[in-house]
Amino acid sequence: MSLLNLSCKKATEMVEQDKIVSLSFVDKMKLKIHLSICKACENYEKQSQLIDDFFLKENFASANEMEIIKNVDLKENILKKLSQ
Amino acid sequence: MSSNKDINNQFTEWVNLYSDKLYSWALHKTSNKEVAEDLVQETFLAAFKSVNNFNNDSQPHTWLFSILNNKIIDYYRKSAKSLGKPTENELLSEKATDSLFNSKGQWENATSSNWQDDEHLLDNKEFTIILSLCIGKLPDNWRIAIESKYQKDKKASEICKELNITSSNYWQMIHRAKLQLKICIEKNWNN
After folding, report:
1. What pTM does this model have?
2. Counting C-beta atoms within 10 Å of the first and last residue's C-beta, which end of chain B has fewer, N or C?
3. B128-157, pLDDT tens digit by residue?
């Protein structure tokens, strides 16, 4: 689908662009129309959002399951620095 | 926290409770003992300076971890600058993401995969493990670009400057990273 001269490749790129630097009004409209009639790009947009949500959840699950390595010297150094 | 003495006591407790855990995480993420030690030390010093920003309702270790993670991503970006020409992984991943679209930029296979529609996907451990593994397999530059995006208090312009890329390079990298994650998820996740 290349509605309004907007390819799917470009449309999905604009999804990411918009999250970083807001698109112009015209581009926003173009993208909105494209997403409203292109199922595959709409899927991409949702998947992109889900990946964002995953990162934003600050997922430290793997940190909790990790083997703890003790570092006594580091502990003492930090305490020394903090008391200065 | 009121007096300096209280703050000092509080920090002594936090260092005793959390420094090993923070250190293990930093070591896991950087594979470098000296770097990991520096990052953890900087984390506590930065926390100490900004203790007024700490909201007593939140968990101290969550707060400390978020400071440490910022520092880890800063470190990644600094080391990424010296990466130079694209790695093999980056070239392969570029090829893979290019092949999702035909020459007109239309989807090669309009995907029927609809994993995004599961509302509870991020609570599904199996899925988050796959997603984490897929993130770990991204080319270094792309992974750093995408991880930087979620860093708090960091402007896109600063990130681009540190990575020595233009802002359009930046969102193109994030676009590619997400496409590559999509490929990886669809290969490994059967819902």
Report:
1. 0.81
2. C
3. 889 989 998 999 889 999 989 988 778 899
Three-state SS for B101?
strand
Note whether B146 contacts A54, CB cutoff 8 Å: no
- What sign has the CA pseudo-torsion B143, B169, B117, B110? negative
Rounded distance, CA B115 to CA B101, Å?
A: 20
With CA atoms as reference, the chain B residue closest to A63 would be B25
| Domains of chain A by residue range | 8-83
Q: Mark out the alpha helices in chain B (DSSP H runs).
A: 4-30, 33-49, 60-80, 88-98, 125-136, 140-149, 156-163, 167-188
Residue A9: HSE in the Cβ half-sphere, 13 Å Cα cutoff: 15
Chains A and B: how many Cβ contacts under 8 Å?
139
Q: What's the rounded Cα separation, in Å, for the pair A15 and B85?
A: 27
Whether B19 and A78 lie within 8 Å, measured CB to CB = yes
Q: How far apart are CA B127 and CA B118, in angstroms?
A: 11
Quick check: A21 and B167 in contact, CB under 8 A?
yes
